[in-house]
Amino acid sequence: PRILILGPPGAGKGTQSANLAEEYDVEHVTTGDALRNNKDMDISDMDTEYDTPREYMEAGDLVPDAVVNAIVEEALSQDDGFVLDGYPRNLDQAEELEGMTDLDVILSLEVPREELVERLTGRRVCDECGANYHVEFNPPEEEGVCDECGGELIQRDDDNEESVRNRLDVFEENTAPVIDHYENNESFVIIDGEQPPDEVWDDIETAVDARV
Ligand code: AP5
Ligand code: ZN
What we know:
This protein is an alpha/beta fold and about 210 residues long. It has helices at about 15-25, 30-35, 55-60, 65-75, 90-100, 115-120, 160-180, 195-210, and strands at about 1-5, 25-30, 80-85, 105-110, 125, 130-135, 155, 190.
């Protein structure tokens, strides 16, 4: 299946995309991870304000469309099934995506803003394998150590309170209109993302199975 997962920063897109990729044997295409792995790539020839993605990401601002569109275009051309996470983030990107592929399911995870701040400032990620934890909601067995691979758990550069609040503002301004744009699509489903992760997953699996 071709699955799109939408939602604000911290809604659980990464967490649930990992489940989707495993359950449906599809590629997890995530612009956030792709950019984090290429933070220092030279984008100065794309006529951008900064020379690398790093400056945009640390502040919680959007990386310019041309950079992100190229990443997604490349990733989707290699896959028939995917879960797309982190894109599109504005209406221009949504239009771009329409030229690249059709979608079977569009999931929209809904979580209230104050809960998002708590989730993001408490998030820890594994430096080695990328696994996701939360100091309170999903702690590792041993503090600071990844259960999966023994790697070190670190805090993302953009998970400080100032960047988090900016990311939520950027979401409201740029990405909320994308969700409105998909709302009347027959593949669109709202998922209550405020429930515990297992219950969110149950709802997602039911929604996807009904559409593929
Ligand atoms: P990106 O990496 O996409 O970050 P984001 O959208 O801010 O999303 P997150 O990864 O923070 O959250 P998530 O929804 O995946 O939540 P998670 O599962 O981790 O983008 C980062 C930056 O890259 C952007 O700011 C921008 O600069 C740039 N960028 C990326 N794409 C771009 C694009 N298309 N255009 C331009 N720029 C782009 O969960 C969060 C926490 O909550 C975790 O600790 C988790 O354990 C916990 N949690 C998860 N589910 C639950 C639950 N049900 N209950 C309690 N806790 C939970
Ligand atoms: Zn790990």
